[in-house]
Each structure stands twice: as structure tokens, then as C-alpha cells.
Amino acid sequence: LQPGGGGPMCTPPSAPGANLDLPRQLEYMHELMALAFQCDVTRVISFMMGDALNNRNLSFIPSVASAGGEAGDHTVSHHSGDQALVSKFRAMVLWKMEQIASFLTRLKGMTDSDGQSLLHNTLVFISSDLADGNRHNHDDKPILLAGQLGGAVVTDRHVRFPTSRDYTQVKTFGDFYITLMSLFGVRTTAYGNDGKEAIVWHQ
Fold first, then answer.
1. Which one in 45, 56, 81, 82 has a CA-CA gap of 20 to 30 Å to 73?
2. Which of 10-14, 85-89, 171-175 has the weakest average pLDDT?
């Protein structure tokens, strides 16, 4: 972001300083991403809150701290069904989802060049590389899409497809990515090992 490049709304934020804790790092990154969209510096952003093997200490989350004991992100995800660790892991996941909600709220509150909100004109894809860190499984992985991509996406829906090891009987993540690309005008009939067609469903 360069000062003066796109009017007052594109003024870069103040430097964050050194030794930021995770909540402040995320807040700053969310601010930069939102401004980059609003100023049309970029059309696509990929952002990872944490890689699958990170064992960041999340004891700053009150319910995690009050429970005591292990507070490493990756370690707690391998809870093996222990209810104390499951409760702690739920608190960690909830905190992460609250950070995502905060970013989406920021986009919703910012105005794009056409007068619509940034969230209206954007499509945000949120997911993980695993469905359940404890089992390391990839089936039935939840995906959250937010925003309307300028009206191309209908919101307030929960779409669920049956899962199976037989990829000829179900819609796959490859199919999902083909569908996602089609929303941006990219047409293809294959994606990865299992993507063969776009997903079509009745509204």
C-alpha cells in the first residue's frame, strides 16, 4: 500500500511494532488484507492462520488458561477423546472462528468502489487441510464460504453431500474446486485426482 495512491481510504496503517502477540498479528494482517482489497492492490489473497504442525501456545484464550495443563495447538488437537482436552480444543477452534468472523465483519463494514460492501463483492474460502486433527482424516471436511462475489453466490445456506470412499458415488473436493473456479469464469473438466465436474444443486 502506497500513501496517496488511491485516495484517503488507501492510507497505509501505522507500523505495528515488534513482538506482537498472535491476536494483534491477526488483527494487523486482517487490516492489511481488507485495505489491499479496498484499494484494488490485489484481487486474490491466500492467508494461513497456522500450519497443521504448528504447536503455538494458545493459553491466552481464557478457558484454555483456566483449564491448565497443555496449551499447544497441535498437541491438544490429538486429544484421543479425552473430554478435558476436547473441551480445550473446542475453545481453541471457537477462538479461531471468532477471528475469521472479525475479518468478515471488517469486510462487511468497508465500502467498495461500486458502493457495495467489500464482503458483498468478495468470496472468502475458509477450511483446513484436515477434517479432524485427531484422526487425520480428509473425508467430510467442512468448508465455509462467505461473501457473494458481486451477487454470483447465494448466501445463508448449508449444503451437505454424502461422503464415501467410492468417488464415483459422491461429489468430491475436486468437484468443489471446479465449481469455485467456474464462479470466476474459469472452465475446466478436471481438478486433482478426483475432480471431474462442477457441483449443481437446487436452491
1. 45
2. 10-14
Question: Using an 8 Å Cβ cutoff, are 145 and 124 in contact?
Answer: yes
Rg (CA), the chain: 19
**pLDDT at 63 exceeding the cut of 60:** yes
How many angstroms separate the CA atoms of 54 and 14, rounded?
A: 28
CA atoms within 13 A on the CB side of 163: 10
Separation of alpha carbons 54 and 56, rounded Å: 6
Query: Max alpha carbon distance in the chain (Å)?
Result: 55
> Strand, helix or coil at 199?
coil
Q: Is the separation of the CB atoms in 37 and 29 below 8 Å?
A: no
Place of cell 471457537: 94
pTM over 0.85? The answer is yes
Amino acid at 139: D
**Which residue from 132, 135, 130 is spatially nearest to 173, judged by alpha carbons?**
130
Q: Bridge partners of 145?
A: 125
